[in-house]
Write a structure and sequence with these properties.
alpha/beta; 4-stranded parallel sheet; 9 helices; globular; binds zinc ion
Length: 255
Amino acid sequence: MRYEHLSSPAIAALDRDATILIVSLGAVEQHGPHLPVGTDSMIVTALCEAAARQRGDTVVLPPPWYGVSPHHMRFPGTVSIGVDTMRALVGDIVDSAVTHGFRRILLVNGHGGNGPTLDVLATTLGHRHHPRVRIAGLTYFQLAAAEIDAIRESAPGGAGHAGEVETSLMLHLAPDLVGMEDAVAVYPDAGSPYLTTDLTGSSPIRTFTDFSDLSSSGVFGDPSLADAGKGERLFTAIVGSLDRFLDDFAGWPLT
Ligand SMILES: [Zn+2]
């Protein structure tokens, strides 16, 4: 289930047509005063590993950890890699997997700042390895937006970054790393109805938003509504959405 736990012969024995390899993409960046900087990579990798655990056909590669986070660089602790670095890094990981014959590769993202790079990776790598390999990319909070919105209680803006959803997930996954006494709620005013700061919101407009312009704490959202039970429900619901997509992806035709 975890690629780094397997031996080379065990990997050689995996069915190349049926096995789905997942690369999880997150970030190492500020998540307000109450969550660790590894939040995005920890959450997305835990979701992928849980989905893989309940299936027999999915293996999760070790996560590259770092993501594209220039919009968080004004806050201490953020480690950002550039778009070109991320393209090269994930491209080399995927190329290695393809060299070893894998034919179904899924990029699962958990960080908004990686979104545009994810789109480019899924399409350029898909083209590079066409028609032998199926490559897809998704962002978990977009895939499971309906499921997340059915559980969350905050108004739009309450679940942007280190808000209700991410804080609940971390209270479920790693409560010792969460400092709820330091949590603050911020509903950012982006200044335009065309701009959304919520995880499950969507807008046709693309622009750059520096988090420090809208939130002095770095929080977008309402961590006061977070709790571990809600985190468990969110986690289960998101893993369910991921599993449904993996069922579908497992059936995408190979030529
Ligand atoms: Zn995050």
